[in-house]
Design a protein that fits this description.
single chain; about 500 residues; mainly alpha; 22 helices; binds flavin-adenine dinucleotide; binds iron/sulfur cluster
């Protein structure tokens, strides 16, 4: 029986389970660039270019190794525009009777693929995605009987499971988590290393021309283009991180500096999420760097926690809670996303810098996403749907399985605290502590009231005040209500009036 081995755009790993047992005479590999996947949200130009180029390079490497690959380019005259219709076309063309595919990353696609058995009258084999370190059913098993699911407990389970940074049954260094050491404020004398930059080859050049022509209305700068698009390049980029950035990764994990979008982060999310890098190989390399004395424990542990902890935890929650997770809106908020998320036209310098970094690089690091871009959407009360659409479209590492729990769960608390124990709401003083954005801002971070005051300051209290019923019983937030209650009536009035004025001005299309 001849099979179609379908490789989706985020499955660019030679070890992917859908290729296991492939035999050249018996199977055809299908990889396709389709309009539907690039436009269900309008992805950043650089994200589409990155994925198409990585897909083309991956297809070429398979062909060199003897695989029979059918590759559909976006502008091929035969291209039917969706994964479904491309699969149908190739099944008919080669009279194939079976599709083998690795479990897709998104719920939407899984539902679609499951329909094919009926619709096309063929057998569909959906194989486990073994690149992840915790299967969805294992996550469910882990969660059983727990009153609350907390990442830290899951992370400890994963550390033990893979015996990472362990000394017998105990964590190396005596602690599981060194986050308290990882909150250094940015210093102006930091010399941040240059990020990895790949050369644009012929394949990427052709893709860039295509994206420029077909997606000119999409958000974001296409060039300069510097992402790795092959496994070799991605490995090179990761090795540069380990040798030049990882040492400071822990210390400055939460720091933000104007004009320094890359800081000491790894910039491997795009590569991990499409399969050019594998999570366990990255974790092992970092563990070895620590064992060799090249990097301190707080950096190694902090990095490893992001991968075996947060990344796997987010995926576990996604598959556990879909599809209802997408519809959650705990605070019942309904504001549209302000236009400045697309243009960067705002007087709030922190937002402006993070949005312009995003536009240029299809990248912003975690604290920019969480404490600036996400925090504002939370305080302002933007409908989770709009926030999710934005985050899904603008980042090169964004796929729903990881974007949605981060946005709806971690940032917006739209699940009412299933994922996070409290909303990550913060006033301007946190942003000022962790960044140098405030010194170039039109607003004054130390002012609490009036048109010159930092909007994060009054919006923060206004957020707490309007959601009192929903949050007051949360013991991690309760202290803030006690502080609020101690404020004078005048202060509370100012918070209310400034918030109403600001929201009104934004609604009237003023640059705020
Ligand atoms: C609002 C919001 C939206 C986000 N959307 C995405 C997304 O679409 N795709 C995505 O991969 N990550 C997302 N994240 C998580 C995190 O911000 C990115 O993984 C990270 O910024 C990628 O940059 P990096 O590779 O330099 O990461 P580093 O800071 O160097 O971290 C290393 C790796 O750890 C993993 N990681 C770190 N934090 C998280 C996390 N919270 N959830 C899952 N994995 C994590 C990533 O794989 C990352 O590449 C989001 C976070 C927030 C707050
Ligand atoms: S003053 Fe407020 S709005 Fe301006 S950069 Fe600082 S936190 Fe952002």
């Amino acid at each position: 029986m001849k099979s179609l081995h379908l490789i989706l755009g985020d499955q660019l790993s030679e070890s992917i389970s859908s290729l296991a047992g492939y035999e050249p005479n018996q199977g055809i590999v299908l990889i396709c660039e389709v309009l539907e996947e690039t436009t269900y949200v309008e992805h950043h130009k650089k994200k589409i270019a990155f994925l198409f180029s990585a897909m083309r390079h991956f297809a070429n490497s398979l062909i060199e190794k003897g695989y029979r690959v059918e590759y559909t380019k976006l502008n091929d005259p035969n291209n039917t525009g969706s994964i479904r219709t491309e699969v149908q076309r190739i099944l008919e063309k080669f009279r194939l009777s079976k599709v083998i595919v690795t479990h897709p990353g998104e719920f939407r696609l899984l539902q679609e693929i499951k329909r094919w058995e009926n619709d096309f009258g063929i057998h569909i084999e959906i194989r486990t995605d073994q690149r992840f370190l915790c299967r969805p059913d294992e996550f469910l098993e882990w969660s059983k009987g727990k009153k609350t699911l907390r990442m830290e407990n899951f992370y400890r389970y994963m550390r033990k499971k893979y015996s990472i940074l362990m000394s017998g049954n105990n964590p190396i260094g005596g602690q599981w988590n060194y986050d308290v050491q990882n909150r250094k404020s940015p210093k102006s004398e930091l010399k941040i290393p240059e990020p990895y930059s790949a050369k644009v080859d012929e394949v990427t050049h052709e893709v860039l021309k295509l994206i420029d022509k077909e997606f000119s209305s999409h958000f974001g700068d296409l060039e300069p283009f510097y992402f790795a698009v092959t496994r070799e390049q991605a490995l090179e980029s990761f090795s540069m991180f380990v040798s030049s950035r990882l040492h400071n990764f822990g210390d400055y994990q939460d720091a933000m500096i104007e004009g320094e979008p890359w800081m000491y982060h790894s910039h491997i999310g795009f590569y991990l999420n499409c399969g050019l890098l594998l999570p366990l190989e990255c974790v092992k390399a970092v563990e070895e760097a620590y064992a060799a004395g090249i990097v301190p424990l707080n950096s190694a542990e902090g990095f490893i926690r992001q991968i075996i902890g947060w990344r796997e935890y987010m995926r576990g929650i996604y598959w556990m809670k879909m599809p209802e997770y997408k519809r959650l809106n705990f605070f019942g908020v309904s504001h549209k996303l302000p236009d400045f998320y697309w243009t960067g036209k705002t007087k709030m310098n922190c937002l402006k810098q993070c949005i312009l970094d995003t536009k240029k690089n299809a990248y912003a690091h975690h604290i920019q996403r969480l404490m600036v871009l996400g925090n504002f959407a939370l305080l302002f009360g933007v409908d989770p749907k709009y926030v999710n659409d934005w985050f899904l479209s603008v980042y090169a590492d964004a796929y729903e399985w990881v974007e949605l729990p981060n946005v709806s769960g971690m940032v917006l608390f739209a699940d009412g605290g299933f994922l996070a124990s409290k909303p990550y709401a913060a006033s301007g003083s946190y942003i000022n502590k962790m960044s140098d954005y405030c010194k170039n801002c039109s607003y004054k971070v130390h002012k609490k009231a009036g048109p010159e005051a930092c909007p994060f300051n009054y919006l923060y209290w206004n957020f707490l005040d309007r959601n009192r019923e929903k949050l007051e019983s949360n013991f991690r937030v309760n202290m803030m209500y006690m502080n609020y209650d101690r404020m004078s009536k005048d202060k509370k009035n100012n918070i209310y009036e400034d918030s109403i004025r600001f929201i009104g001005e934004l609604g009237d299309g003023k640059v705020v």
